[in-house]
Design brief:
Elements lengths: L12 H16 L10 H10 L1 H7 L13 H25 L4 E5 L6 H4 L7 E6 L1 H13 L7 E6 L6 H7 L9 E4 L8 H13 L6 E7 L4 H8 L10 H4 L10 H7 L3 E6 H7 L18 E7 L2
Parallel strand pairs: 1-2, 1-4, 2-3, 4-5
Antiparallel strand pairs: 5-7, 6-7
Length: 299
């Protein structure tokens, strides 16, 4: 359960969800004609412990990500989400944006794997131990970032704009913000505060990409909560880590503040990129159908 001021590393609480997501990216990247490939996901998983390596090597048949129902749907969800944010970064670069901020960066390796233009600075905000695991793992593997990468070790419930500015963030330069896989772990009031902080330090020409999740229906939530709390399980653990609250609609919120917005549901986006998430056959696969992807640009 979440508590006020709780902390985590990469293998506990909210931090462990980054490994689960990385596992989905790694597995999805092995499928024929993947939408996105993240070669660093496997590096993180093998560094995290034998149980994650076993998942990659097919030695954990009881784990949800390898199940025909949930596993296939969740992998499709993650590869689509990865492509959406990758394409967003490419569009921001093409528009001349050279300042990127990844909130709750987790095991996001875009600073290492995307072809950033010269002069790009990527700021990564997350818990100190999460950022340390990423940097140490990739350094040990001999990997170098393809942009100037600046770590901002901070809890997003604290004064993160101050910490960001202390690392050299330029409030006068356009920024590309990434809010991927974050909002469900914040209470509704904290989401509004996050958005307010972003608009206050976003220069004209800034943009943001957001993944948001509708309230999870109670039958789905109950079904997930009843799953056994096994290692690598994305159900019983996850349902106790999120705040299942109605949040502000991101497109409406930024639109009301003068930003130009565009959004679509995940199933609509999947159809646009030639994928079908399929018909949910159990409560777990319902979750991706609750996802919306939103982009907003400040004129």
């Amino acid at each position: 359960m979440r508590t006020e001021g709780d902390t985590w590393d990469i293998t506990t609480s909210v931090g462990s969800t980054a490994l689960f997501v990385a596992a989905a990216r790694a597995l999805a990247g092995r499928r024929p004609d993947p939408l996105a490939v993240d070669p660093f996901a496997e590096i993180f998983l093998r560094a995290a412990g034998a149980e994650w390596a076993d998942l990659l090597d097919g030695k954990a048949p009881d784990q949800p990500l390898l199940a025909p129902g949930f596993g296939e749907v969740f992998q499709t969800f993650l590869e689509a989400r990865t492509k959406y944010f990758d394409d967003y970064c490419a569009a921001a670069s093409a528009a001349g944006v050279r300042q990127v901020v990844i909130l709750a960066a987790g095991l996001d390796a875009r600073a290492y794997r995307l072809p950033w233009p010269d002069g790009t600075v990527v700021y990564e905000l997350d818990q100190p131990s999460v950022l340390a695991f990423k940097q140490q793992t990739l350094a040990a593997h001999g990997d170098e970032p393809r942009a100037e990468r600046r770590e901002v070790p901070v809890d997003l419930r604290e004064d993160w704009p101050k910490a960001l500015r202390a690392k050299g963030f330029d409030v006068t330069a356009p920024t590309a913000w990434l809010v991927e896989g974050l909002l469900p772990y914040l209470p509704a009031v904290a989401v509004d505060q996050l958005f307010e902080h972003i608009i206050l330090i976003s220069a004209p020409g800034s943009r943001i990409a957001i993944e948001e999740l509708d309230v999870v229906p109670e039958p789905t939530r109950a079904a997930l909560a009843e799953q056994p709390e096994l290692p690598l399980n994305g159900g019983a653990d996850w349902v106790h880590l999120i705040y299942n609250e109605q949040r502000s609609d991101a497109a409406q919120w930024f639109g009301a503040h003068g930003w130009h917005t565009a959004g679509r549901t995940l199933p609509d986006y999947l159809a646009a990129v030639g994928r079908d998430i399929g018909s949910p056959t159990s409560d777990a696969p319902v979750l991706p159908t609750l996802v919306r992807l939103v982009t907003a640009i400040r004129p």
